Amino acid sequence: MFEMLPPMVHTLIDSAIEEDLGRGDITTRLTIDPNAKGSGRLVAKRPLVVSGLDVFARVCERVDPEVEVAPRIAAGGVAAAGDVLATARGPVASLLMAERVALNFFQRLCGVATLTRDFVERLPEGCPTRITDTRKTTPGMRYLERRAVIHGGGHNHRLDLSGGVLIKENHVAAAGGIAAAVTACRAGAPHPLRVEVEVRGLSELLEAIDAGADVVLLDNMTTAQVARCVQIVAGRLFVEASGGVSLDTVADLAAAGVDAISVGALTHSAPAADISFLLESVTDAPPRS
Amino acid sequence: MFEMLPPMVHTLIDSAIEEDLGRGDITTRLTIDPNAKGSGRLVAKRPLVVSGLDVFARVCERVDPEVEVAPRIAAGGVAAAGDVLATARGPVASLLMAERVALNFFQRLCGVATLTRDFVERLPEGCPTRITDTRKTTPGMRYLERRAVIHGGGHNHRLDLSGGVLIKENHVAAAGGIAAAVTACRAGAPHPLRVEVEVRGLSELLEAIDAGADVVLLDNMTTAQVARCVQIVAGRLFVEASGGVSLDTVADLAAAGVDAISVGALTHSAPAADISFLLESVTDAPPRS
Amino acid sequence: MFEMLPPMVHTLIDSAIEEDLGRGDITTRLTIDPNAKGSGRLVAKRPLVVSGLDVFARVCERVDPEVEVAPRIAAGGVAAAGDVLATARGPVASLLMAERVALNFFQRLCGVATLTRDFVERLPEGCPTRITDTRKTTPGMRYLERRAVIHGGGHNHRLDLSGGVLIKENHVAAAGGIAAAVTACRAGAPHPLRVEVEVRGLSELLEAIDAGADVVLLDNMTTAQVARCVQIVAGRLFVEASGGVSLDTVADLAAAGVDAISVGALTHSAPAADISFLLESVTDAPPRS
Amino acid sequence: MFEMLPPMVHTLIDSAIEEDLGRGDITTRLTIDPNAKGSGRLVAKRPLVVSGLDVFARVCERVDPEVEVAPRIAAGGVAAAGDVLATARGPVASLLMAERVALNFFQRLCGVATLTRDFVERLPEGCPTRITDTRKTTPGMRYLERRAVIHGGGHNHRLDLSGGVLIKENHVAAAGGIAAAVTACRAGAPHPLRVEVEVRGLSELLEAIDAGADVVLLDNMTTAQVARCVQIVAGRLFVEASGGVSLDTVADLAAAGVDAISVGALTHSAPAADISFLLESVTDAPPRS
Amino acid sequence: MFEMLPPMVHTLIDSAIEEDLGRGDITTRLTIDPNAKGSGRLVAKRPLVVSGLDVFARVCERVDPEVEVAPRIAAGGVAAAGDVLATARGPVASLLMAERVALNFFQRLCGVATLTRDFVERLPEGCPTRITDTRKTTPGMRYLERRAVIHGGGHNHRLDLSGGVLIKENHVAAAGGIAAAVTACRAGAPHPLRVEVEVRGLSELLEAIDAGADVVLLDNMTTAQVARCVQIVAGRLFVEASGGVSLDTVADLAAAGVDAISVGALTHSAPAADISFLLESVTDAPPRS
Amino acid sequence: MFEMLPPMVHTLIDSAIEEDLGRGDITTRLTIDPNAKGSGRLVAKRPLVVSGLDVFARVCERVDPEVEVAPRIAAGGVAAAGDVLATARGPVASLLMAERVALNFFQRLCGVATLTRDFVERLPEGCPTRITDTRKTTPGMRYLERRAVIHGGGHNHRLDLSGGVLIKENHVAAAGGIAAAVTACRAGAPHPLRVEVEVRGLSELLEAIDAGADVVLLDNMTTAQVARCVQIVAGRLFVEASGGVSLDTVADLAAAGVDAISVGALTHSAPAADISFLLESVTDAPPRS
After folding, report:
1. What sign does the CA torsion over B41, B45, B47, B49 have?
2. CATH number among 3.20.20.30, 3.40.50.300, 3.40.50.620, 3.90.1170.20, domain A7-119+271-283
3. Of F130, F158, F192, the CB nearest to A194
């Protein structure tokens, strides 16, 4: 039903189960008939973008392979308040034990996807500017959060320090200038990668262009400065802007003509989506034998 | 310098390093002299409560044991905008490689501590009500986030499903009523644990008291309802309130006389604290030999 | 068929398989037809209480998913000498390879359950005193051994250092007295936990009661001393006794009126249960293809 | 100070720490000054053979690298009741946190070493018979328990299913007889391994000798039967006896002239050694800074 | 369909998937319909011996349980150029994602099996000499490579440092001579192991025989020297030769009458077998739902 | 002394130690005085390029922190036959135990670096063509092997499936043509990545250029075909050639003017470098205490 989850994600899922369930669920053991079966619904309490139902399902399956999760909305789909996102069936004890861990993943991922869509929807209509994530992700969850950004309509930046060349101020200083840094990276980086360099003003921008950079990063510039840079680049390079971008400022920055705007808040400050798991129709099924 | 970090935290730190640095840092390799030494400062860009400097230090040490981190503010301390939280010294390449992963942990933990303090500070002066966390924590980070809540002046709820008995609506239904559920848990739970039960109204509250519950949870009640329950309990049980509590509503709820208010947002929706790592005074030290 | 096993248990199972089977079973490879199927019976050679058949089954399944284990006696059930506890069917080579590792878990867990029941059965009839375990468990097996104690009719003490507050002599000394220690713990511990304190005499007992302790631990007292303490407590607190309790002394201690007796030997010195796996009815089935 | 511990042992140590300390030690946090230093002594409460002090030290070091453990008796040494086995110094909080986990390993390993020596000492004086262990070890602890057997004066049997060829009844049946099984193993087993075969009587013994077996295993025979077999073998093969050997029966069996007696109880049923950790001389040292 | 793979192999498979697929397959995500199904054939491009199809299948299954691998040639079988080794069916995206990692294992293992057979086939007809591997294996792959040697018609040497006694020059020097070293090992080694000793000349050979060694290792001797040693041994011990043996020299060495020739190159320098995975008959199957 | 090794490398090192040393080194235990100290030299027996001395050192340190490894030649340096690459000092037993595992890593990595240099040295003088690796690496060792390629003077291709876009024949077919595939990837791939596409002839090459590909891969073309493609590209794109390139054919291919030649054999078929560890100057040092 779902795509592959990398081994590191399985490991994190096991850690999350271990930290909540590793010593057992005393309350459930003492109050729930182990043979009772039930079903429940995952319900959006506010509008959201779906991401991570496969992780929700995987947590449940790892707690008890008898639990079955049936998604109702595909990844990237938009849910209104009250929409059922998925149903889950199986032993009641297992549903109660898995619920919190599964939701801790799912609410966070929907939160990232939803915030991403909020940013994307602020862009002027037809605007080709990309909203991208950053490396400011939750420890252990980068793969999942990057995927949530795509589900929300955003794009990914480099996935790690090997997935792109990005020359920042400290690298420039150490290398002896933008030209030297860009040249070193063009000579030594794997050829599947572009060379991106952060510039702090027009002279640095021109130096970057001359040195053969493929992408420039305009960090913490005013919208006017950004617009001026875009004009100078004139389509020869890919232009990225970043630095404290908010839902209020993203439209102007996009209108300035940049190709991409990277937003750390997508992953480091997205509030959890508001989702409930409602257990119902409990039946005392025959023993699991 | 710091207290023990549990093995699971070390594992998560390694996962976080693996996901950012596991294939290497191409830009740093191509631009930074491996013998260059430098130092940097961790600076608060907005007011915050410190939590997780030991994790920051551990990430750095794992990337390169030669990096030394010297804290300036103890865990639980409050920093103003501009305050230096710690300094770090070592090979420049290692500082640049470790920075992002270390900050991803540290900014999140300071964020949790800071939001907790925000809640605590809303309490009426002298009010003994506890602000507590919940099990709605980031997968893999529960230990660290729980500690951050304490650093922020909050208290912990049960740490996992074995660290307390909490009978919720589904357990009550399955056990055949509050009295039956409480009795079963009193008989079977480890004696170091109290028995807490969620009640939805006065009759359930009275049933819980009669059955010998130690703690009652008032979920999603109005402040008036809560006050009425507190009055009935009259100090015989510990009273906890929960359900969508915000910075705006926490003071009224506390004033109603509950012993504790649990707030999921402390861990599931705290924005990352705004912290910069500023690298400076780079010197071309002699070779590391 | 069985309840969830936490991730740490799966990891230990894999370690146990690795240490016996990780380089292969040379004898079986050279003598057993890989297509031969067979079945075997797990037989109790002496009376025992069953615990850990799910672990036995999990080891087999991990060695070869084609092996099927069918339990005959539920966890907590009592077997007489000669009783069949379970049957297993599958490739003969896999049965031979899995047998020893699976039994190493199963015999130990039945041993713990059986010794627990021995203690419980020594209690005077109708006596409400609990027999509880301690933290003196086999490294890596705490979850399984705690469960075995329950299967044997015992109760669990705190599951780990976070699952209860237990103030011992060193804590008292460091905190500056029983009252100070109890007060600090009442103020700072998670509210789902009771506060337990070890006392060495009557004056300490009275101090503990006054300070608001929920549970007292009477360590290494004579039965007479214990009885005197129980009289003083008069039901106001939960009373636990511990210290070198044996099958010979447990009844008297219980008769003194304590609520619980904790016994380290349940987990640190239970002899392995005597169980055989008898392979039979080997048939040269058609190739597994 | 100590020999290498294999990676799997480090992993088990981390699991054991995780299961006791992974959520923190609430009592210690609330009562012990983190700057207080202290020292303690490991004391034998009954006579024992020492094994596993390096594991004790490793647990302490993993909890806090500042804890220093100084052994007083080498591995394999015998301690009388009251003897100090080692001292430990460091932060009091860390000593209290590490104590139980470290003792859980150490008491078990001393227990195995001590029981082994008990068996060895029952042998007739000058008797060359080996007391060996079996594969009936505690899951995850095989390396440590095997080492404890050596510390107790015993010998190891094959360490795992790849560390020796041992043809049992099922292998014989599947291979079509002892001769066929032995021949197959001689032809296919790695040449550094001997071929051992279990025999149930004289005719099988003769068949094993003819087929070129290097070792025979006499399982569950009477002492008289064993003596008869030894006489027939006449030094041509190595003779091992096994099967429910106890401290009461081991001397007779050895006197019958076997080369080795394997005893499962050494590892599956050794009671934990009785050892205390006594904390003393607590001083409020200056801050750890 | 296949035999058990030890836990360490599963761990290595996950590591290999993590290092190639852990951040996702961007190209496949952007170009392949997730619902498209297809099938492919594993084809030998040059003659080879098959080993590791189960690992190939396991990698595929771990990437996507819907992928089914059907072997056409059993382990140890010989394939001609153009032969189909196996077929695989499943989602096209999953086949493309798993292909490279699965082949990286499979090509290496077939390479080892094929080189082993090359050595075995150089032996004089009817020659009983064994070709054995060494401990010079690829980190993490020892189990798989040892198995591949068997598939290629070779034999295994000791599997690890515990799976045999092999006294080398440094051990002899430290122990004070061959006799002392052999005697110490005969006295202390587990009885399922033979004692092997490396000798550098005739006098050492005689000393080894006298001391009761079971096996001698002739390292880096000329064929003439080896023949002389074999003559002296006269069948009393097992004789192994080693040291830079190549396809050109193996026949002469075997003809000199040694029982085994160990060849490090089998595992440390076998070139990868030339195998292609050809994807075909792609169909746009209905959604996976 | 050395750069950071990623967590996955540490894990592999532990696995390699576990598989050789996890059950102990019986021979060394029985023959070597644990207090004896010694030193040894790593010597190149044939010319080679150095790579992986830090891994060699890490293995030794993990076996025994008292072992000190002092490199004599830096990574990427060339050694002649007889050159000393490093020295190691420490307990003799630890040196003997660590040697084989440490060499298994080191010989392989030097082998990769050496073969890479062999290819690079075949290039026409002054030729700017890159020799690059592929994803055909040893499971678990990709990071280390990629680094060895750089040490040998080569370049890296994409590090994993997320570190570059490479559209192959199957992707083209599924996407409905080269133009469609390139367009999809340009629209959806992270902007730090170039888009590379495999072409099988001139018309596909032109289509790729028109669609905006950044890199073209010419797979298995004749040198003449390659030269024709280079002429058409005329510097507008980066041109890579691949497919069964050998030391004999690499010069001609480079002369055809391609920007890069990727060679799978660098990592999948490099023979181990010939390196010895010679232990010497053993002294009976005073006890390690």
Report:
1. negative
2. 3.90.1170.20
3. F192
